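Researcher: We plan to redesign the surface later, but first we want a full-length starting point. Tokens attached.
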């Protein structure tokens, strides 16, 4: 977080010495979408933009569909897909209880022409998941707890933002891109087995850092501006292609979001946003991911979720922007048992030059 604090301090120094302008002049804090929306805007020819985002996601409480389920209920009722293989009990014996994911995302945008903006984004991701292990082959006797962790470079995206139309009050553009498999898919960790042993195994799918496949990115974004308020909507999808080296393909992801922003002044706005998110189950299986835990089952990865987000956005004439969003789910339906999302916090800094 020290990098983010430095960026915030530098930006605030610049912001408070800049000249304030009226809300109907060129500067608008809502010229960009809320910070949680990716590839939301394009640039004028010759412009660059550097961006940094910090995202923290917290997950807790297991769900089947949209119903909460306790760890004890999971280990007594949920079938272990690996049952019948050596040392595999009939039901699950290890249950995740909480997960945190933190991402540092760096982005660079450049417009070589008036109709095309190029964008590259890479990220560093860290994940921690807490578990409870139940003893033996059956029953509700807890053996102990353990935590697994992974950290490293995630997948890298390269995109082209193509301007379709623009008027004095509206913008429409398409996003076409590819996600490159720069994140690991073979991370390992030490676990607490129901036997009491602590083997080092390949970690289940949610703890891996990348997809392992070259994935397609597509999207369409519309924004409309009024005197003191604006709104917009975006569709964005990631479509997986082929199997990775481990023998599986992550589920496709689709997002549909719409937002409203209101100018408190030219350089300050608040925003509200709704987002629908859908992720498919995994196709195929990694033969080295085999354990009596729900995260090792490819059929327990699908999810749909409806989120609501509130944000603040700051901008000044020097090209600096600072924004934050807090996101919580209104409803989620999981191919469970699966940990539900409890909240997300997104902080971002952008500089246009």
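Model: Full-length starting sequence:
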């Amino acid at each position: 977080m020290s990098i983010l604090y430095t960026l915030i301090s530098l930006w605030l120094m610049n912001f408070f010495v800049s000249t304030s302008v009226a809300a109907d002049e060129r500067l608008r804090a809502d010229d960009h979408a809320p910070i949680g929306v990716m590839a939301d805007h394009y640039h004028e020819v010759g412009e660059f933009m550097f961006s940094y985002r910090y995202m923290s996601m917290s997950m807790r409480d297991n769900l089947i569909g949209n119903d909460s389920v306790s760890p004890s209920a999971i280990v007594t009722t949920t079938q272990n897909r690996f049952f019948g293989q050596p040392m595999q009990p009939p039901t699950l014996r290890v249950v995740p209880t909480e997960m945190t994911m933190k991402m540092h995302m760096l982005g660079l945008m450049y417009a070589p022409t008036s109709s095309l903006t190029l964008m590259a984004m890479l990220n560093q991701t860290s994940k921690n998941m807490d578990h409870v292990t139940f003893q033996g082959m059956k029953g509700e006797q807890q053996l102990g707890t353990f935590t697994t962790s992974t950290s490293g470079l995630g997948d890298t995206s390269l995109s082209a933002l193509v301007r379709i139309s623009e008027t004095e009050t509206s913008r429409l553009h398409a996003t076409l891109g590819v996600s490159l498999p720069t994140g690991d898919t073979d991370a390992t960790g030490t676990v607490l087995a129901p036997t009491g042993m602590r083997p080092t195994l390949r970690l289940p799918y949610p703890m891996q850092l990348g997809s392992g496949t070259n994935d397609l990115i597509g999207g369409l974004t519309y924004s409309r501006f009024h005197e003191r308020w604006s709104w917009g909507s975006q569709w964005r999808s990631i479509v997986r292609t082929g199997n990775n080296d481990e023998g599986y393909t992550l589920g496709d992801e689709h997002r549909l979001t719409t937002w409203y922003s209101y100018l408190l002044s030219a350089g300050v706005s608040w925003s509200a946003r709704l987002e629908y998110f859908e992720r498919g189950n995994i196709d195929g299986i990694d033969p080295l991911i085999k354990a009596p835990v729900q995260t090792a089952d490819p059929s327990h990865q699908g999810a749909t979720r409806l989120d609501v987000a509130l944000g603040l956005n700051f901008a000044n004439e020097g090209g600096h922007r600072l924004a934050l969003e807090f996101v919580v789910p209104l409803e989620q339906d999981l191919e469970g048992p699966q940990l539900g999302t409890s909240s997300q916090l997104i902080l971002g800094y952008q500089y246009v030059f």
